[in-house]
Queue: 3 jobs
Job 1
Amino acid sequence: MIDRVVEVARPARLSVRDAQLVVACEGTPEVATPLAELAVLLLAHPQVTLSQAVLSRIAEQGGSVVTIDGKYLPAAMLLPVVAHWRQTASFAGQLELGLPLRKRLWQRLVRAKIRAQGELLRELHGSDDGLLPMAARVRSGDPDNLEAQAARRYWMLLFAQGEGRNKFRRGTDMALDGLDQNQHLDYGYTVLRAAVARAICASGLHPTLGLKHSNREDAFCLAADLMEPFRPLVDRRVYRWIQEHDPAQRLDARAKGWLIETVTARYLSDGEDRSLFDILARAASSLARAMLSGQAQEFAPPSLLVESPAPQRERWP
């Protein structure tokens, strides 16, 4: 199966014909994608028209739909509610998850995230700057807040360019501070978040019931948790992009396509070439097993993944 991410970023009418999603834009030929191959549909223009039947058919095939706002952040997300053989037990296990197990699972996520950040710094700049030893010191629940300490060091160094090494700040207000690579990161994280939420639902878990993230206005707290070790995959692509392009320019079709390839690319995992969707599904399944068994060691999030060649993507500018 091919997992495709399709973005519609211009006025278009969407329909389903012969088990395919058909995108019709004025002045251009129709483009069709088999629903069985569609993983994520990104709606990035206010003049995209589609029916409830289209949304239903996408969900029936296991795909997700994300609407994106003007800041490249998710405004809404539609996920498939597909019966899983252990879904009821999984939901109950999430609701009854004890604090000690929750804290141990969060410890494993934070360790994996900091390791991935350190490995990316070493890959790009030749040194992990102490993040790998820091990852090993993360305790249950991360009471020392090493995640935040690692983040401060990581963002200071990731986009370091000579004397400007301290100028980048993650999460700044683009309206006040102007455009920079934050817009690229936000867009990439939006795509990744959709893929992670899809994997969580497929594993029988509920994406709202998080381990650490608990924003009452966030319907996908568990997706925010599970995506943490995978964020450096987006960071790596953003770094490579801004080496040749001005980050202050607004995202165009080429930049978005490059970032979408973060989730459509293939990676080496456990000695095998796998799609990121497969790797995310395995991570979500191991998390579900850990929750049901009460054994945190069942959950094994990966460190930084090595990308294989020949990513696959689809987009319409």
Job 2
Amino acid sequence: MLFGRYLIECCFENEAILPYFKGSTFRGVFGIALKRVVCALKQLKCEECLLSERCLYSRVFERTHGVQDKRKGKKDACPRPFVIEPPLSTKTHYPPGSSFDFNLILFGEYNRYLGYFVYALDQMGKIGIGKKINGRRGIYCLNAVTYGEAPVYTKEEKVLKLPEEVEEIVSDDFRKEVRCKKIKVDVITPLRLKFRNRLTDHLPFHVLVRAMLRRSSALFSWFDDKKLDLDYTGLVRRAEAVETVNSELKWFDWKRYSNRQDQAMSMGGIIGSVTYRGDLGEFVPFIDFCSRVHLGKQTTFGLGKISYEILE
């Protein structure tokens, strides 16, 4: 699966007020901007448009279901092909001239459409983000986009230089066991996981593993055309034997306003850290993968960002 993580560097041209957690703001305007960039028949709804199957906006934001899952008797949800990693700073006030950076992660073939996404990010700056001040939102200038050390776009040149190669994550990576008997997992942005159809504020290791298996399988199925050949039942069973030796997790509540649903929505999740002990070697590749692609619900906002440290 192709995996591209792009650094987006911007600078506000006027005063801006952003929320404490900025991911939902970025994601909302990103959708509006991308539709402006690629939509050919703006008067039609996506479901009415004959071009929807080939339209980049429709494929990124409107596709909701995919192939039939015979075991569950329903269709699998299609994961979004991107993650926006907003600034982790709690800063909310940005005077004119303030710089801010964030990351855009793209999966699979969507890396080949990077030019459209860059143009949409540029248009986001013109639309404006954040709370209105004297009738205007925060307007920003897109200064640069980089992939690793390679420049993709700069405001001076205004030329796209797409990467010749993008990192590929292969399914065999999940079979690389690492010596590990104790591991600490840090939950950096709110993690929203459902267990037995309810959001959970606890994170037993088997619940974490179930979520990682769902995320890994979905991304490879949709963006690499490949089903992971894994012993799902055995992995979950062995995960249930892993003990939690320390948990400093807590529930963090925050709300976002949904323009589409015209209402405030609760987006709470767990943050903090948790330490596990047991035979963990076979699970480390999944933890490493999910530390890069995010985990749980609303990952497009930047939720579910985790990191880890092997202690033993």
Job 3
Amino acid sequence: MVKAPRHILAAISDEPSALHGVRFISRFLRVTDDIAVTLLFVVPKPPDVENPGRFLTSSLARGKFSLDQAARLLVEAGFPSESVEQKNLFARRSKPAELAAEAVRGLYDAVVLGRRGHAWLMDLVEGSVSSDIVDTGLRVPVWIARMPGEDRTGVLACLDDSEQAFGMVDHVGFLLARESQPITLFSVLDPGHEDHARADALFKRAVGMLEQHGVGVERIHTKTVASANPAKAILAEAADGHYAAVGVGRTGENKGTLFMGSVSTTLLKELTGAALLVHQ
């Protein structure tokens, strides 16, 4: 396994035309001398057919083509070829569960999902597939790049007083310390009780975390808005600010779905252009 100070696991599907997660990585992370990317293709379980070997051979061939395309995209973007690893994993459970297990087993700093990964998560949110990925314990930050837009920059880091939100800020500081991306700390205030002192306290703590990672103060911005609908306010700011990513903390107790918080769920369903970062 390749290793580096920043190690990312990128899930690859057998659709080489839909490498949205890898495209996001190539545009978003420009300092590449301390990053390793493991490209993971989960080979599906063969169906109950007479010749499962033929099915597996075909799946491996399609996966190899997608893995090669993804690796080429990263190398062309400036990632050293020796820092890009291709990996096949034969599924014994659902694909999301295998991905979750690999993320924990490999001690990755982040998981990046594209369009297919977004579909997996939507199935989990809506309860239409098994919650294996939750039970396995996917506790690394997840970046979901369903339809990443070009020429976007910066992270909109959405704050509340949950530890998950500050975990998200800590991850952003770690991942982007050597990058040039601006980071906007964003707080949605209750219009009936605009507690600016509370927002200032949240910002102070978050700024301190970012500075501990070496993020320059010139890259850190703060913004508050008043809204009774936090998800709608975040979506509006994400569109207006043309951010590359929106970060939130997952809140709520795990009761069998991946995202219990209504804000996270709404963003997962409706955010386009920007990637969504969810910290568990």
